[in-house]
Amino acid sequence: MRDAISGGALTEVTFYILLSLFEPRHGYAVMRFIEAETGGRLDLGAGTLYGALKALEERGWIRRYGDERGRKKEFVITDAGKTAAKSELRRLHALTLTAERIIGGAI
Who's near 14: CB < 8 A, 6+ residues apart? Predict the structure, then answer.
């Protein structure tokens, strides 16, 4: 996973996954959330999503939620994941302010 929150940006997909998990969701619901929030611009395949979920879980940014008796595994963001998402939001906000100052106003 290319994301390095201490030194740089999260990928757009990682940021959207973290945002989607501010409430518990299973993988398909995460894919639908991202598709809806991006107007279909981002359309994740299952392999991409589940690889990212595994990496985020290993990093400690998300964790499994609830019991695992059902087929659908649910995930939720952790405090460390919230810290990463908030850091990315601050980075994006600073980027946007700079771009608006140079380009000339909000779009």
Answer: 1, 3, 52, 56
Domains and CATH numbers, the chain: 12-103 (1.10.10.10)
The two tokens of residue 3 are 């994301």
Q: How far apart are CA 34 and CA 83, in angstroms?
A: 20
Task: Please give the structure tokens belonging to residue 39.
Answer: 């107007």
Cα–Cα distance for residue pair 68/87, rounded to 1 Å: 31
Residue 106 CA, chain-centre distance (Å), reads: 24
How would you write 77-100 as a 3-class SS string? ECHHHHHHHHHHHHHHHHHHHHHH
- Among 66, 61, 65, smallest CA distance to 79 is for 61
Mean pLDDT by 10 residues, the chain (107 residues): 62 97 96 96 92 96 84 92 96 94 80
